[in-house]
Specification:
alpha/beta; binds manganese (II) ion; binds phosphoenolpyruvate; four-stranded antiparallel sheet; TIM Barrel; 2 domains
């Protein structure tokens, strides 16, 4: 339920409304807008509650949240959420977040070198997997803790914040210790125990859409994390599985403007997993930004043909640099900035 407070209410009067919400056994979530204060009521919302809160002094109106997800919905929080992931980077503001790096961390030299190259091209977040969900148990499944150590070294040498995947509740402490953003992969979007676990942290979480996850299921998965106490959730559209076999997944560009309309959370586009083909990554990245994404996740490898995972969708340093210059043009057209690219272009 959403309570819109009258613009003339004093702080004490707002505090009295909050006290009444808390007395009813519910929690209050305050959004201070420019003109209005909006209070989200967290907990069950039977119809009689609407009359009860609606009759309180200085309550202008009361609205029931019509979606099954509440804290995630834009009704609940009308302003865009901007998440500070640390090391000077935010996700969801006018500056785009570009998370780039290899699918898997292969050794220290590999991740440090890739970090430098993507940073040079204008990326502001380093990605790299240490725990890899692979279709085959015989495929390379990541370096584990040693990979996290290499990632931390690359972060130290470049100053970039890092994102890496957490696959199981068992590894939550070690991943949280090294990551600036914890990635929950597509295969774990509805691993509700894992969602509860990252909900108990304050560390930012990027929740990827499952390969057959509906928008409502995805937003309800995000609701698990917010309702457990962690408001720092970033969504990531990474393509869905359809009848089409000409590419790995079908990047669902529709999802971006729809999720921006339904939710206040930032959304990242991942055209690498969304297409599975490196030649499609740059055009689909541009489409994602044009559609309103708050940033990108892109797989980059110094020698894609030799990559231990996802080589076919990985960009070389050169093709990534070229992609960033073209994305900067689209960013400018939709009122977003990519300041790292401006610096690269100016240095040329
Ligand atoms: C990844 O980012 O390397 C990955 C495994 O992504 P997804 O969960 O989207 O398949
Ligand atoms: Mn990958």
């Amino acid at each position: 339920m959403i309570i819109v407070v009258s613009p003339d209410a004093t702080q004490d009067e707002v505090a009295r409304i909050i006290a009444r919400i808390e007395e009813s056994g519910r929690k209050a979530h305050i959004s201070e807008g420019q003109e209005r204060t909006i209070i989200g009521v967290i907990g069950s919302d039977p119809p009689e509650l609407e009359d009860m809160f609606g009759s309180l002094p200085h309550v202008e109106s009361v609205h029931r949240v019509t979606h099954p997800y509440k804290m995630v919905s834009r009704q609940f929080n009308p302003t865009d959420t901007v998440i500070d992931i640390g090391k000077g980077v935010t996700v969801g503001g006018s500056e785009l977040a570009v998370m780039a790096g290899p699918c898997s961390i292969e050794n220290e030299g590999h991740i440090v070198d890739t970090a430098r190259a993507v940073q040079q091209a204008g990326a502001n977040v380093l990605r790299g997997g240490a725990y890899k969900p692979r279709s085959s148990p015989y495929a390379f499944r990541g370096l584990g803790e040693e990979g996290l150590r290499c990632l931390a070294q690359a972060s130290k040498e470049t100053g970039m914040p890092v994102i890496t995947e957490l696959m199981t509740v068992r590894d939550v402490d070690v991943v949280a210790k090294h990551a600036d953003v914890i990635q929950i992969g597509a295969r774990n979007m509805q691993n509700f125990n894992l969602l509860d676990e990252v909900g108990a942290l304050k560390k930012p979480v990027m929740l990827k859409r499952a390969m057959s996850g509906q928008i409502e299921e995805w937003l309800l998965a995000a609701e698990y994390i917010l309702s457990a106490g962690n408001p720092n959730v970033i969504l990531c559209e990474r393509g869905i599985r359809t009848f089409e076999t000409a590419y790995r997944n079908t990047f669902d560009v529709n999802a971006i403007p729809l999720v921006k309309e339904l939710s206040h959370l930032p959304v990242i586009a991942d055209p690498s997993h969304g297409t599975g083909k490196w030649g499609l990554v740059a055009p689909v990245a541009r489409a994602g930004i044009a559609a309103g994404a708050d940033g990108l996740m892109i797989e980059v490898h110094p020698h894609p043909e030799a990559a231990l995972s996802d080589g076919a969708q990985s960009l070389t340093y050169e093709s990534f640099t070229k992609m960033m210059l073209s994305v900067a043009g689209i960013a400018a057209a939709v009122g977003r900035t990519l300041s790292g690219v401006k610096a690269t272009a100016a240095a040329r």
